Amino acid sequence: MPKSALTGSRIRERRIDLGLKQARLAEQCGISPSYLNLIEHNRRRIGGKLLVDLAEALEVEPVSLSEGADIALLDALRSAADRAGTVGAEAARSEELAGRFPGWARLIAAQERRILSLERTVETLNDRLTHDPFLSASLHDVLSTVTAIHSASAILADDEEIDPEWQARFHRNIFEDSERLTEASRALVNYLDAGADAERGASAPQEELEGWLEDTGFHMPDLERALPPAIETIVQGADALSSASSRALAALHLARYRQEAERMPLKDMLAAVEEVGLEPALLAQRFTVDLPSVFRRLASLPEVEGKGRIGLVICDASGTLTFQKSTDGFPMPRFGAACPLLPLYQALGRPMSPVRQVVEQPGRTPRRFLTYAISQPAHPQGFDGPTVFEASMLILPDDRVAIPGERPVPVGTSCRICPRRSCAARREPSILADPA
């Protein structure tokens, strides 16, 4: 049903909310009650002065009557309907639901967002339990110590004629193992407490850096100034960077940030984006820089409301992710390997050849993203040293995808939690079923 056809429903709902009689509202607007009744039942289109008069009488803006629910609310309702699958929710009537029952619509949308958030948390926790090396080592240490205590105590319990000297040895071993178990358990609890936020808990220097950058929105206004403060001053003032390693990584990141801010000043970059859009090749040509620099600069721009969040992923030649800025609907694993079909990894096999690809993440409502990727070699120790490759992938929000006729590539997060069972690149079985 078109939005204009629901204006009457919104007028009726607002009138009832205010406790106005139909005759009273019609009188205020200079029309007959019968004509207002036709309007409220969507049998007469209205606009112009009458719409303004009705909005004034109902104490709302005219746009709230003519346009109805915002796009985000409608998207959430349609997502909830698609997720319901065989329940039979009428996704095509989402606008009508939002117009007639805005409170219930907002409740459904809030529940849908909560469900999506919980699903991301479950995926992150599963990824962590499967691949986090510290967690795996800690659990192994706890289990080994418990086994040693059990073995020693079982010997003491089963054999009453053990020599006193051996009894003392077993008692001492049990005591020492108990102390070790206490320390291992305390360290494990502290580690899990530190990572209580399943999506942001930091356990490594890289995670500390990314958590700090997330708090800043990946944008550093101080480094955009003509006379920026010293990088060491910024790093030392970041409480989230608790280790020397994370501060060292932050210093390297900020140094590169500052260099790219000088070559692509914020004001000029925003003007260029306004003119040519988020087209990395055109921006690279405009500022005479390479594509990875443009990727990083775009990911560092301040977010504009309604424009979506630009994502960026960087990996080394082993495929290990060395930097992540996520975007909604495009999760990346914190531990272990990502999807091998990502353009990021295609670029590693094609150095210096840019890759542009529309990809599709799985789900009841699959989401598409436009990605750009490239891999470039570096020689940090000169030509006599090893060649080091780094691949970068820019991820643009789905509302920017506009390439007609281009077939998307199905991708996922990681094999273990990807529902695409027929994927040719699968490394291990998925714990998830195919979406309905």
- Classify the helix fraction into a percent range: 40-55%
* Class by alpha and beta content: alpha+beta
Shape: extended
Domain count:
4
Largest sheet, in brief, is: 6 strands, mixed
- Oligomeric grouping of the chains: single chain
Strand order of the largest sheet: 2-1-5-4-3-6
Q: Are there runs of 5+ residues with pLDDT below 50, and where?
A: 1-5, 197-202
Strand content: 5-15%
> How many strand elements?
6
Q: How many individual helices? A: 18
Cα-to-Cα separation, first versus last residue = 26 Å
What is the chain-wise order of helices and strands?
A: HHHHHHHHHHHHHHHHHEEHEEEE
Overall residue-averaged pLDDT value: 80
Q: Give the radius of gyration.
A: 29 Å
Explain the overall architecture.
This protein has 436 residues and is α+β, with helices and mostly antiparallel strands. It has four domains: 3-111, lambda repressor-like DNA-binding domains (434 Repressor (Amino-terminal Domain), Orthogonal Bundle), CATH 1.10.260.40; 133-194; 203-263; 265-436, no CATH class. The protein is 52% helix and 9% strand. The chain has 18 helices and six strands. It has helices spanning 7-18, 22-29, 33-40, 48-57, 62-66, 71-84, 94-100, 102-131, 133-158, 164-194, 205-215, 221-224, 231-236, 244-263, 266-276, 280-287, 291-300, 343-348, and strands at residues 311-316, 321-325, 355-361, 367-378, 388-396, 409-410. It has a six-stranded mixed beta sheet. It starts with 6 loop residues before the first helix and ends in a 26-residue tail after the last strand. Residues 1-5 and 197-202 have low confidence and may be disordered.
